[in-house]
Amino acid sequence: MNVIPIDDPTDERLDPYRDLRHEDVGKRGPLFIAEGILVVQRLIVSKYNVQSVLAESIRVGDLEGLIDETTPVYLVNRSVIRDVAGFNFHRGLLACGHRLKFSSIETLDEVCTPGITTLAAISINDIENLGSLLRTAAALGIFNVVLNRRTADPLCRRVLRVSMGAALKMRFFDLHQPLQWFLANQTDRRWQTIATTLAPDSVPIEHVKCGSQPKMIVMGNEGEGLPISIQQACTIRTSIPMAAGIDSLNVAVAGAIALYEFTRKDRRPNS
After folding, report:
1. In whole angstroms, how far apart are CA 9 and each of 16, 84, 93?
2. Contact in structure between 190 and 214 (CB atoms under 8 Å)
3. Angle between helices 251-267 and 127-139 (to 10 degrees)
4. Choice among 24-38, 43-57, 127-141 with the minimum mean pLDDT
5. Does residue 208 share a domain with residue 112?
6. Which of 42, 70, 98 delimits the end of a domain?
7. What are φ and ψ of residue 218, in 5° steps?
8. Distance in angstroms (rounded) separating the CA atoms of residues 233 and 120
9. Is 50 helix (H, G, I), strand (E, B) or coil?
10. Rounded to whole angstroms, how far apart are CA atoms 79 and 85?
11. What are the tens digits of pLDDT across the range 163-177?
């Protein structure tokens, strides 16, 4: 390994790791940060290039056999990490990756095959919710995610942490004009778009019939849900029946239920 000791917290080679507590989750620059043993290891073996790793001495061994010899591993003590990151960091391992450009929404047809399910996240800006949704999607075999530009950065440090690195496995599609795309799909009918909603005239989730057509599960903002215009442009509007007095679910919980329900038949042998 290319281990380089650094004891000066002002060293410019540490600049990508500075002030992580105040990261701007809406600003998607060329680099992103992974933290913790599992997420850093998953970054190293992912499709993303690693610019550098920041490690305490007790964590260097966790990189053995994984890291490329040309990638610098900056060896620092805990106080240096604390000074650079801006908080008392205890995980002992950080890595900096180079972003890949999101796929154009026009290339979504490349994955439009029978039986496939895609997740669409529309203006989901809570970090924990987005990370949980991506982790659930990966667990259920969903690796294509459509995002509009009001959705939080899926590669920000905290999303990666909550998703346990599952976000690194995803292919992201840039839905820059959401309503326009859903209206076009309403005409083309390439995707069966399933809007999750609390609307009283929605279809209970257990009554939705999907078949083998490509499906897109569409989840909306935590507070406002999906815009009515997008709901109306979807193939189906569905809801999760709840007991009297409970009016909604956290979007990560609702998403987990919907994703499980609409991938259940696809996971059955000989279905």
Report:
1. 12, 6, 16
2. yes
3. 10
4. 24-38
5. yes
6. 98
7. -110, 115
8. 14
9. strand
10. 10
11. 999 999 999 999 999
Query: What pLDDT was estimated at residue 244?
Result: 66
Distance CA 143, CA 270 (A): 22
Query: Of 104, 229, 122, nearest to 174 (Cα)?
Result: 104
Please tell me the number of Cα atoms within 13 Å of 58 on its side-chain side.
Answer: 6
Q: What is the pLDDT of residues 123-143, one digit of tens each?
A: 999 999 999 999 999 999 999
Both structure tokens of 42: 């998953």
Q: Which residue has the tokens 């990756």?
A: 97
pLDDT at 223: 83
Neighbours of 92 (CB within 10 A): 20
Measured CA to CA, the distance from residue 251 to residue 140 in angstroms comes to 17
Would you state the pLDDT for residue 75?
96
Take residue 170 and report the two structure tokens written for it.
Answer: 């995803």
User: Domain holding 226: CATH number?
Assistant: 3.40.1280.10
Q: Report how far apart, in Å, the C-alpha atoms of 92 and of each of 53, 60, 175 are.
A: 11, 9, 36
Residue 53: domain span = 2-98
Strand partners, 204: 239
CATH number of 60's domain = 3.30.1330.30
Q: Give the chain's domain count.
A: 2
Walk across the sheet containing 93-98 and list its strands: 2-5, 72-75, 50-55, 93-98, 31-35
pLDDT at 271: 40
Tokens representing 16 are 């990508």
Measured CA to CA, the distance from residue 155 to residue 202 in angstroms comes to: 33
Place of tokens 């990370």: 131
Classified as helix, coil or strand, 125 is coil
